[in-house]
Kinesin-like protein (Capsella rubella), 978 residues
Amino acid sequence: MGSKQVSKSRNAAGFSKLKTAESPASSTTSSSKHYPETSVDDYSHCSPTSSSARSKPQLLHTGKLPPKALQSKENVTVTVRFRPLSPREISKGEEIAWYADGETIVRNEHNQSIAYAYDRVFGPTTTTRHVYDVAAQHVVNGAMAGINGTIFAYGVTSSGKTHTMHGDQRSPGIIPLAVKDAFSIIQETPKREFLLRVSYFEIYNEVVNDLLNPAGQNLRIREDEQGTFIEGIKEEVVLSPAHALSLIAAGEEHRHIGSTSFNLLSSRSHTMFTLTIESSPLGDNNEGGAVHLSQLNLIDLAGSESSKAATSGLRRKEGSYINKSLLTLGTVISKLTDRRANHVPYRDSKLTRLLQSSLSGHGRVSLICTLTPASSNTEETHNTLKFAHRAKHIEIQAAQNKIIDEKSLIKKYQYEIRQLKEELEQFKQGIKPVSQLKDTSDDNIVLLKQKLEEEEDAKAALMSRIQRLTKLILVSTKTPQTSRVSYRVDPRRRHSFGEEELAYLPYKRRDLMDDENLEFYVSREGTPETIEDAFREEKKTRKHGLLNWLKLKKKDKSFQGSSVSDKSSVVKSDSSPSTPQGEGSNFHMESRLSEGSALADQLLESRENKEVHEDSFHEFETPETRIKMIDQMEILREQQKILSEEMAQQLKTFKLLSEEAANAPQNEDIKAEIKILNGDIKAKNDQNATLGKQILDFVIASHDELDKSDLVQAVSEMRARLNEKCFELEVKAADNRVIQEQLNQKTCLCEELQEEVANLKHQLSDALELGDISSVTSHMQQSSESPNKNEEKVIEAQAFEIEELKLKTEELSELKEQLELRNKKLAEESSYAKGLASAAAVELKALSEEVARLMNHNQRLAADLAAVHNSSVTPRGKIGNQRNGRREKFIKRKEQDSSLMELKRELSMCKEREVSFESALVEKVQREAELQRTVEESKEREAYLENELANMWVLVAKLRRSQGADDSDMQQNDHIGT
Ligand SMILES: Nc1ncnc2c1ncn2[C@@H]1O[C@H](COP(=O)(O)OP(=O)(O)OP(=O)(O)O)[C@@H](O)[C@H]1O
């Protein structure tokens, strides 16, 4: 069984750099050079799909056609596959938003003018087998002929990618169909021999994990002059479709799958299954023939998730990684189709890094876009259609990779087989039959017998190695003459899966959560346990396919007691006699195993197989180990056969010797030979019995082990769930740690700022104490008293600088003092002016009151005067009295006039004083403003001086430090000097 670890495996480019391993199936280190050739010896040119697959899509609603230049080149094959509306969508009353209009057009139900054309559009009832024939078969054919190929499914979550790529037992997907087809092509190509190996990995949250080797986590993507590759990924040589499918099934166990609101078993990672194909012309003299090397990459992408998806925690994190990588894929495809773009961002995600060679290289690419017709997904479906439309314009050039380098793995094995055969031939010629050793003495006979045994051992080892290597190289069982058409394969090749192969496919993979189980899911929707349970149930159901098969096999064995290899022939597909690989799931049994197997050494084999046999009791948990079991059974049976053949030969010799002994009864040598031969035959008989027992034990033990496998599976499931929970917790813990760290950082920052403020305050107050300066300077002076003459000048300069700084500081301090004094004076003046102003204001107020009083008085007098004047106009009879009265009044009036004059004078004087007070007040206000300005200026000056002072402190500190460094240098120099 070819299980090996290789350190490197090329990616989609098909560039392979292989590394040594011990087992025959191991890859070898090689710097194989291969050159793409434009002449393609392809098995697919007669594919019915090729013509349609190469027509261009056109965006009908814009009326745009692809440029002419594009039409002349080969493009990515882009097909679109609708899935039916799911029962859940139907129950929700969803309607069809997009539909397949004929074989090449997708149209929008609500806006008929929006339509896209592709190489082929598959409706919801199309079978995966038909999708394979149209979208994948030509890529597989090319890969078998040395042209790299990549097939990938793209679409939103739950649109049917995994259904299309993996499928289930009722409807096998593109991957099993491609694997089956690859082996069929080998059967149909009798002129070449092939070596197939597989790798399987996932990209989960931007981390590459090996699905064939659980220890291979977080693998690195590396690049060299030949392209991108994954460092340390495991590659396994495969011998039959069942073997390859068993590896996928084992790998799927490790893939990240989780339940989302859209899909109960949603792929949370992108997976890439790579089949590496090497082939060379058949025959022993094929040294000159070029080896074809290619890779077939089968990719199941995780689905893009819309923002509508109500996810949280881990699922959201996964979703964002998935969306980001798919977005990058979209950007890369846009750039590849935009002739003006000079940079394609392949490196932005691991997915695009690994797809780089496929998208930009010399291989065939087929993109299958899966769609849900549901109206709730209209926008997402439209985006997928646009993505598919862009992808159609990527130009590719299919070319065959031919390796000229002798170090290709198949060449290496072929060379080794030749060498071993030659060695074996030499051995055969070197071993003399016992009957030729008549003249030798007894001692010599013992020695010769020993030598003979050793040679037999070596011969057996050689045989065993030849067998193993031969088993790895796959050849057609058909002779070139019986082949229908050499190098051409029937385009309508059909793949019927044997029971054994189907067992590796999920029984009913990822059925919609709304299928038969819909009610169960819907009725209790929202409760996490329910979803969990459903998820578990679903996973269990998925495994039942394999488990049932194993149980079935167990029964078969107990009833029939026949070997597994026999069983494989029972599994031969009678349903399709035209399908070569359907004729036997153990393809390797039809390889060149039988060639020269008659002389295998049973001793060595039985020793090796005893170990294998014992180990194998613990290896029934996975399909992979089951394959090992089948192989080991085969080996045991093969050994039994070889042993029987050898015993028959020895019996023949024994018969001859007995006849000789009867003719010459005196000949002791013959008797001795007979004795030895007898012993040998007995030993072989015992070994045969042991082998029989081992086979029986093997069958019995496998029964028990198969029962245990249920338990083992349950435990591994629990373990997987536990791991998932742990991972979730880890993610949460990591989030918490990040938040905690951020909080700590903020607190630290706050503390630092507070410290800085305190420091600045402190420095300012220190700077004000000038005494410090002198102490610093004196310290500097002290430390500057260095004996080192070389440094004297520097120290002097520094001392001078410090002196200067000191002077400047003093000057500044004086200036500051003066300014402070001036400030003080100005402040005093200002307060005095303010006092004056307020006094003036009070006086002004008093004066204005006085003025108001006088004016009132004036008015009263004026009123009196008017009254007097009125009364002076009287009759003549009263003239005498009146004359006296007039005089009195005249005198009175005169008096009043003079007092009025006086009042007026007083008033005008008051007014004058008021004006003068007012002008004095204005002057004072002006003066005050001036003083205020001066105060401001002084403050500014003061701030400036403080700043200067702080700068000087910084300078002083620097000088101090440099002085310290100089001192330590000097001390060091002194130290070195001493
Ligand atoms: N063509 C189809 N015919 C019938 N059922 C289909 C078809 N395509 C998908 N389905 C069903 O739809 C469901 C979701 O499909 P699947 O798991 O393949 O989606 P997906 O795109 O791989 O989702 P995710 O990206 O979440 O992994 C499954 O139950 C599947 O059986």
Observations:
- The first helix runs from residue 49 to 53.
- The pocket of adenosine-5'-triphosphate is lined by residues 83-84, 155, 157-163, 263, 266-267, 302-303, 370, 510-512 (CB under 6 Å).
- Residues 1-72, 481-492, 509-531, 540-624 have pLDDT under 50 and may be disordered.
